Amino acid sequence: MKLLEERIRREGTVIGDDVLKVDMFLNHQLDVGLIDEMGKAFYEAFQTDGVTKILTVEASGIALAALTARYFGVPVVFAKKAGHRNVGTDLYTATCHSFTHGTDSTICVSRRYLHEDDVILIIDDFLADGNACNALRKLISDAGAKLAGIGIGIEKGFQPGGAKLRAEGIKVRSLAIVESMKNGNIVFRSDDAER
Amino acid sequence: MKLLEERIRREGTVIGDDVLKVDMFLNHQLDVGLIDEMGKAFYEAFQTDGVTKILTVEASGIALAALTARYFGVPVVFAKKAGHRNVGTDLYTATCHSFTHGTDSTICVSRRYLHEDDVILIIDDFLADGNACNALRKLISDAGAKLAGIGIGIEKGFQPGGAKLRAEGIKVRSLAIVESMKNGNIVFRSDDAER
């Protein structure tokens, strides 16, 4: 998605060789016009996949998920980070390792909001090693629901998450794939490449 | 807002005399159509107030803030709960007491995203004692920005937050005000009453 790539190039900050900060438009300050366009792109990619619900994880996936859900006309469920919220005890849970923070956390969803007949689109702002996606997939699997696919804002193509998910036959659509960002120079995977 | 009041009456769960759970449509599962209507109502209430930015706090305010911001065509900034995020060190911070969880937490916003010339609309899902709003007001005040007003999904009218804010002359618009919920019976403040 050219609009997103241009924005990353213009305003993204590379720290070291593998951290990309985009908190001026995607996950602290939110450019809602851009995020709405991203939601529309996800709708175009997954509109024929029978999506009944969108699943994300708090906090930075929520805006993208909500603006995507408007196009689909389906609800969002956001997984909560366990331990600090009154979400009840009747939960699906999964462990998620954070690449950025180097910590493990537990995420959870109330059993009331994921059902066997749901066809679920996972939406998240970033994909790196795939840990958040795999934790969300476990929640979906525990509920007996079906995964429609995964929509990602920015994929770090130099980390293995996206390749592993695609190798499993999962439909993954990343709106921008960063191939490398050595020395602060951001290179995107070409639009011609297989996504 | 009748649509919201009806939804609370139909699906809200009262716990004790003062906890109202609406996690089936507002803060765990999200009814994006309803939340979009709420955003439109905030736009109608604040469209002439010169709003340049919407400020909320993670996680449950984000969807409402993002869908509201679409109508205004302005960015959202969401305050983060400190300690677990790489938001940098150049921060505005405030302490916030949680009524629901009985704990104090620190919220923060990068100084890059609140400016002296900003006119800020605070959006949040709930207003009870006003602690989250007051913490967000401190961030705005520290930045030297101006407060346009406060838009709230559900106000607990039997707790003092809303009355205190209005007594200070702040424009507060709550889309549903719960007057009482004794014995699980939810009574809304009448539409005729002063809001």
Task: Characterise this structure.
The structure is a homodimer of 195-residue chains. Chain A is of the alpha/beta class. Chain A has one domain: Rossmann fold (3-Layer(aba) Sandwich). Chain A contains five helices and eleven strands; from the N terminus they run H-E-E-E-H-E-H-E-E-E-E-H-E-H-E-E. Chain A has helices at residues 2-11, 32-46, 62-72, 131-142, 161-167; strands at residues 13-15, 19-21, 29-30, 53-57, 76-81, 91-97, 104-110, 119-127, 146-156, 172-180, 187-188. In chain A, the strands form two sheets. Chain A has an eight-stranded mixed sheet, sandwiched between helices. Chain A has a two-stranded antiparallel ribbon with strand order 1-2. In chain A, a hairpin with a 6-residue loop joins strand 6 (91-97) and strand 7 (104-110). In chain A, helix 2 (32-46) packs across helix 3. The longest helix of chain A is centred in the N-terminal third of the chain and has 15 residues, at 32-46. The mean pLDDT of chain A is 93. Chain A binds chain B through residues 19, 21, 23-25, 28-33, 35-36, 58-59, 62-63, 65-67, 69-70, 73-78, 80, 84-87, 100-101, 109-110, 112-113, and chain B through 19, 21, 23-25, 28-33, 35-36, 58-59, 62-63, 65-67, 69-70, 73-78, 80, 84-87, 100-101, 109-110, 112-113. Strand 5 of chain A pairs antiparallel with strand 3 (29-30) of chain B, so a sheet runs across the interface.
